[in-house]
């Protein structure tokens, strides 16, 4: 009796070992630089991948030679989508790129469940000639805080902690 259960468990384990639960779809690509030196270090450049119908983004960071590899984002309730866009976000140093060179769609790769970029992602390390490179205005609000003096006997933290949310101290209630 025990022997039959051991054989059944062994056969079940062997069967499960051969089944691949999910085939992961990966994107492999490379970023390039048009005005860099031969031994430029590409490590640390951020790449994002957004697929149609999926709320989450996939992020990748390039290696020293500019290669990146990332699993495509997917929603487990829907079949995987291959309508994805790859975008060059930036890096440890200031990068200059045109809209055309920093966005690419994905296409089927040579191997099964692999994809690659359809157009090269490229950038410059310096502002191109005959163009005006302006720093974009800050898209976020100012981080400057106001600090109104509060009497120390109130025992409250500085008012800059409360400014995003209105706070009125109630004095005299125990």
Automatic annotation (TrEMBL):
UniProt entry keywords in alphabetical sequence: Signal
Stretch forming the signal peptide: 1-17
Protein name: Pollen Ole e 1 allergen and extensin family protein
């Amino acid at each position: 009796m025990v022997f039959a259960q051991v054989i059944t468990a062994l056969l079940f384990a062997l069967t499960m070992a051969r089944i691949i639960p999910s085939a992961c779809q990966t994107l492999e690509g490379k970023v390039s630089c048009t005005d860099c030196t031969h031994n430029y270090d590409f490590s640390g450049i951020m790449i994002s991948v957004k697929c149609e119908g999926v709320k989450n983004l996939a992020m990748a960071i390039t290696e020293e030679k500019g290669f990146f590899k990332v699993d495509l984002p997917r929603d487990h309730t829907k079949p995987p989508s291959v309508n994805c866009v790859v975008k060059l976000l930036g890096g440890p140093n200031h990068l200059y790129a045109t809209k055309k060179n920093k966005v690419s769609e994905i296409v089927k790769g040579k191997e099964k469940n692999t994809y690659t970029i359809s157009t090269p992602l490229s950038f410059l390390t310096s502002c191109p000639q005959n163009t005006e490179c302006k720093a974009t205005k800050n898209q976020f609000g100012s981080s400057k805080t106001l600090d109104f003096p509060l009497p120390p006997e109130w025992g409250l933290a500085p008012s800059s902690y409360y400014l995003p949310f209105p706070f009125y101290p109630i004095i005299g209630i125990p």
